[in-house]
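Quick start: read one record
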Amino acid sequence: MRKTKIKICGLMGGEDVSYVNIVHPDYVGFVFAQSKRRVSEELAAKLAAELDSGIIRVGVFVDEEADRVVELLKKDIIQIAQLHGGESPDEIRYIQQRSGRQVIKAIQVRTAADVAAGMDSPADILLLDSGKGSGEAFDWDCLRAASRPFLLAGGLTPENVGEAVMEISPFGVDVSSGVETNGRKDFFKIHDFMEAVTKGDKRK
């Protein structure tokens, strides 16, 4: 049984939804920030309606107006907000209180000091990444400074995620470009990524 949570981020179309409905990750992400994977509110609502109800929908934002984030949460297009910008603790609390939903805060990691500094965030879940969805890995030794559960992101692939799960034991792993081919989600890579996480859990 898989213990480590899995988030497949950057869904853009019905084909992507059909893939995740088959393999059933714990979370999927819709990107509302400026990105090649950006989706409109209308498209996100359409995809959310097609998604298996057991998969949690996360909206990804960078320095978005807090009330706009709350609006999308209250419309139930997304169920969790993931913040990648310079959002303050007060903004995080505002979104939590106004929406009654959870917030994930992304922490950009270069050193162990970056990790330690992020531990006091009021966010419900932390996401430790090398950048704003850069897809680049970082030195996992930095993560020993983490004092609370976190999602690991940045440069994860079907080839290295099992090792990450065994070595770091994150709460969950977050992937986007690592399960794509030519900029599009690849069902076989998604499947292999999830299999690798399950095997990593068993070997811990």
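The helical segments are 14-23, 41-50, 66-74, 89-99, 112-118, 161-168, 187-203.
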